[in-house]
């Protein structure tokens, strides 16, 4: 079976997700306060069993969930994705005690998770992070420094935090910690960002952590971060594909009904060609996202390259498609509350977070040259 072909059951599940998003999730999203965690929405995602699927599904299922929800309710999609991003390191690398304490609460929507990697001086260059984990003399550490642009901060209940435990070691000297939000010395400040969910800064003033808070192994935290991002980068692409599909669907409907120049907009060649280009880019991105997800699920050796390609292509394609849709709709698309006004704001950030487009290009090139130098096949 071709890598891009979905089973009928998967197609039906996607349709079910879109219906649930319209009937049960979007009404809760519309009642949410911008810049705040929408806990009723999270609880409903838990009731529907979607949050628990974060820990039982593969990468392709994650992509299908994110794409389907994004077509109807981007707020629900983002709430789901942020729970997965913050909690996946606990699921994949946590101790039994860590998993037992937090994962059931993440799954039912009662605990909010966050992934705290970026810093003021270490955004795209994640290996350069400087949040210091100084030994406290008792086998534990004290965290001192700052994290910034952290989704769900400062409202999360716990954070997956990456800190430097060995100076001068680059990526090899980073440790991942599970840090509950109520630890002494940990404070947060909301940032006024172009985002419907909270994004904030975290200040660590000698925050105590112990060996029981380590995720994985000391000095091996960068691996925790990268394995998490390798899983979630294709699904960021899926989020983008969902937004692109929503914009494309809106454009097909609008250009079919709008009277202009003695006919319908769709009768103008420039409009028809624009819609065709939107469809090609959307479908191309979808296929690359699915291929990257299946590579992850089958344990392929080239997952970092495929994941980077999928995120890069899909987020750049979605930016084009949404922008083209706004152009086709004209001024009405910029009215507050219009679907495309919402998508126009939402579509920009995915080209930055979880590795900006420039970072993805760097990963792709590095992987290609590494494969060439070792004689590994790179094209399939």
TrEMBL record:
UniProt feature coiled coil, ranges: none
InterPro entries for the chain:
Acyl-CoA_DH_CS, Acyl-CoA_Oxase/DH_mid-dom, Acyl-CoA_Oxase/DH_mid-dom_sf, AcylCo_DH-like_C, AcylCo_DH/oxidase_C, AcylCoA_DH/ox_N, AcylCoA_DH/ox_N_sf, AcylCoA_DH/oxidase_NM_dom_sf
Q: Which positions fall inside the Acyl-CoA dehydrogenase/oxidase N-terminal domain?
A: 9-109
What are its E.C. numbers?
A: 1.-.-.-
Asked if the Swiss-Prot or TrEMBL record annotates the protein with the keyword Oxidoreductase, the reply is: yes
Single GO term (MF): oxidoreductase activity
What cofactors does this protein use?
FAD
Domain of life assignment: Bacteria
One Pfam match: Acyl-CoA_dh_M
Q: Which UniProt keywords apply?
A: FAD, Flavoprotein, Oxidoreductase
Q: Which PROSITE patterns match?
A: ACYL_COA_DH_1
Every Acyl-CoA oxidase/dehydrogenase middle domain range: 114-206
Question: Which CDD domains does this UniProt record tie to the protein?
Answer: ACAD
Domain called Acyl-CoA dehydrogenase/oxidase C-terminal: residue spans: 219-368
Its family remark reads: Belongs to the acyl-CoA dehydrogenase family.
Protein's recorded name:
Acyl-CoA dehydrogenase family protein
Source organism of the structure = Streptomyces vulcanius
